Structures are given as C-alpha cells and as structure tokens.
Amino acid sequence: MDKRTRDDEIIRDILTRVDEAEHLNQRTLAKELGIALGMANAYLKRCVRKGYVKVSQIPPNRYAYYLTPQGFSEKTRLTAEFLTDSFSFFRRARTQYADIYRDCERYGWRNVALAGTSELADIAVLYAGEFDIELIGVIEPAMQGEQFHGLRIVADPTDLNAIDAVVLAQIQAPQGVYDALLNVVPVARVLVPPLLPVTLADASIGAGAVNAADEGAAL
User: Fold this and answer.
1) Is residue 72 part of a domain?
2) Half-sphere exposure of 140 (CA within 13 A, CB side)
3) What is the pLDDT of residue 138?
4) Which residues lie closer than 8 Å to 66 by C-beta, 6 or more apart?
5) Is 73 part of a structural domain of the chain?
6) Is 26 in the same domain as 111?
7) Residues 157 and 200 in one domain
8) What is the CATH number for 8?
9) What does the pLDDT look like over 16-43, one tens digit per residue?
10) Nearest Cα residue to 129 out of 107, 112, 146
11) pTM to 2 decimal places
12) Cis peptide bond upstream of 174, omega within 30
C-alpha cells in the first residue's frame, strides 16, 4: 500500500468514526484505528485544517469533534473509492486464481496447497470448488497446527502428502514466501497470480505455460 492510499484510508476511517461517535477522544481513536496517538492527533489536525472536522472545547479540557458537510462529502467520496478499489481487486484475484486452477486441471495437478492466509487466500479457497482440484492444506509457518477454512495449516510443504502444486496467496512480503517455497518445491509447481509483486524464477509458470517435461508426478 503506497503512502497516498494509506493516508486516504486513515482519513476515511477518522471521518467515519467522527460521524458515528457522539463523544470521541484521540486516545480511543488511535486505539480503534491501530495507529500511534501522535499520528491520530496529526491526522485530526489535518482534517480540521481541510474543513472536514470542526472541533469545540467542552470544559474541563475536553474536546468534541463534529463532521462538517464538507467532511461528510469527503467521507462519502473516499468510501466509494475504497469500495471500487476493493471490488476491482476481488475481480482481478478471482480471474487470476481461476486461470491458475485451469492450468492445474490442464496438467493433471489435482492436489493443490495454498501458501498464505491473507485475503487472497480467502478468494483462492472460495473459487477452488469450481474446478477439478482439491485443496489439501495451507502453508503458513506462523499458524502451524491451526486451520483455515477447514484446511490444515502446516509450516512446510513437505508436511503435506503428494502435493502437485503450491499456489501463492500471501499479500505481505510475497517475494520472501515465494523464494522460500523454491527451496523445497520445483519452480514450475509454484504458481503465482500476476497481481502479486513477485519476480518469478525462469521455470515458474505463474498462470501460464509449463515445461511439458515437468508434467505428471506429484512432489
């Protein structure tokens, strides 16, 4: 997420909280948004300067925040923009995972594992049932022993039996996850949706072609 997107996200969340909460203080706001108190203060001041929020002092030493008409309009704009971006992301992810699953069907790779438990993994699980493949587990070392959508989470691909392919579904630091997978999984069997910022090794198929010599046996 770039700085502008992050700024818009924080401002949208602040305007939403000011609009919803009758009494709001900066400490509570910072905690709810998961940001530092100083950052919450800085963003609130920015919203006041831009005319999005009006602040009034309530004795003793307390402040009340109100959303202005301009602030309401900005909140509406940012929310609509966020939803548009979210739907666009969802559609792209759905299409790209469908392409990957079709590749798996084409090459007879039925037993498929996911790498990661991010929002992408939610989408990957949701649409896997539309194809002739089986998700047999999820690779996520930090969550080993837990479950994700009913799938067993393991620390390493070797903890799952007869994997035909591993599909990357990790948003945070995907390059590192991809590189680690290549230590134990043949490069052509690590499949990556194009929306992830990953530099692929030469033999990786992503959502495209595979070396015919590598078709066949499971890992």
Assistant:
1) no
2) 23
3) 97
4) 18, 53, 54, 55, 56
5) no
6) no
7) yes
8) 1.10.10.10
9) 889 887 678 888 888 888 889 999 999 9
10) 112
11) 0.66
12) no
